[in-house]
Write a structure and sequence with these properties.
Helix content is 0%, strand content 56%. By secondary structure, it is an all-beta fold. It has a single domain (2-236), classed as Jelly Rolls (Sandwich), CATH 2.60.120.
Length: 238
């Protein structure tokens, strides 16, 4: 088993006034040659958008883009004529493929939006762009992991699918639990991002927004010390 630790306070930072962002991997003006991604996971941004502000229309190409709101609601518009808002409990996926444009906006006059945006490199370039979002029953992630994103050819738990052999799971666990996470493919790695709480993995104590990357392992044991919300991204390592 191999591991790499990314403490919350070591992430890249950007403060644009209307947007505060923490980057787990190199992104925009933050460049760290030792953090160019984890396997096929290229981006994990933890973004906070102020009320009545947002991202103007911008392009993407050949990337699987996943957005997960943690608080608030984010309005979405794109060049495929989708006009939707995503809220807590929902997950959004876009396959950028041959190219698309989209914008994201916080319509609230009073509340910030906090959301995660993940970019996963696709297995195949030049696919037809697509968009999908879904509301998940969060009661199904109590003291267990709920798969919210899965490969197109192995959709489990009614997950949203993407063009990559990758999985995203979320679990909400009570304190003093021991969880055995079994990888779908032993050749994959997992990037565990602690949304909230305190856990131990491989004798490493992780606090809120800390992360650990693990590869060359079939199973990973997680111990919770507080009530904890855990995001797990399983991806091919090459």
């Amino acid at each position: 088993m191999n591991t790499i630790i990314h403490k919350a306070n070591t992430r890249g930072k950007a403060d644009h006034g209307w947007l505060k962002s923490h980057h787990s991997f190199s992104f925009a003006s933050y460049h760290n040659p030792e953090r160019m991604g984890f396997g096929q996971l290229r981006v994990l941004n933890d973004d906070i958008v102020k009320p009545k502000m947002g991202f103007g229309k911008h392009p993407h190409q050949n990337m699987e883009i996943i957005s997960i709101p943690l608080s608030g609601a984010l309005s979405h518009k794109d060049s495929m004529d989708n006009k939707r808002a995503i809220t807590v409990g929902e997950v959004q996926v876009m396959s950028a493929g041959t190219g698309l444009q989209h914008s994201e906006f916080n319509d609230s006059k009073t509340d910030e939006v906090n959301f995660l945006q993940l970019w996963i490199q696709p297995q195949e370039l030049g696919v037809t762009p697509r968009y999908e979002q879904k509301e998940f029953d969060i009661s199904k992630r109590e003291n267990q992991f709920q798969t919210v994103v899965a490969p197109k050819n192995n959709v489990i738990d009614d997950a949203l699918w993407i063009h990559q052999d990758a999985y995203i799971s979320i679990g909400n666990f009570n304190a003093e639990k021991t969880i055995n996470f079994k990888l779908n493919n032993a050749a994959h790695g997992i990037y565990i991002f602690l949304l909230e709480g305190e856990i131990t993995i491989e004798d490493e104590i992780l606090d809120t927004k800390d992360a650990i990357g693990i590869w060359d392992a079939e199973n990973v044991q997680i111990k919770t010390h507080k009530d904890s919300k855990i995001l797990v991204v399983e991806v091919p390592m090459n």
